[in-house]
Amino acid sequence: MDSFASFLGTGWQFPPQFSRQAKGALMLSDEADIKNSLEVLLSTRVGERLMQPKFGCNLDELLFEPLSVTLQTYIKDLVSTAIFYYEPRIQPDNVTLVAAEEEGVVLMTIDYTIRSTNTRHNLVYPFYLNEGTNIIK
Description:
By secondary structure, this protein is an alpha+beta fold. The chain has two helices and seven strands; from the N terminus they run ββββααβββ. The protein has one domain: Nuclear Transport Factor 2, Chain: A.
């Protein structure tokens, strides 16, 4: 099957990679493209894209906030709203936040249904701040 004929969509892999064998950019299709699009959406700051200034979530602004019930509700709404506006191929079913055993790490699980195929998937997105302690000089 031609990778450009996917009815769920085909797009560039992010971060972009190029291949001599493919004679161009590496592409993702179907569920892999949707998962990659969600990861890009969740890691993009609002205003970062010039052509789509409202695209993104601004999750990085919430890194040092205590994980209260209010903040969990706010993050769930922020993520669901961003998916609603910028990823029309899926319907978010549930967004769950769990504090991991490691301090400062929150695992966000997004359960979603792909609208055109009515199949259910999930994405676990680690939400944390990378520490600068492992920098090699």
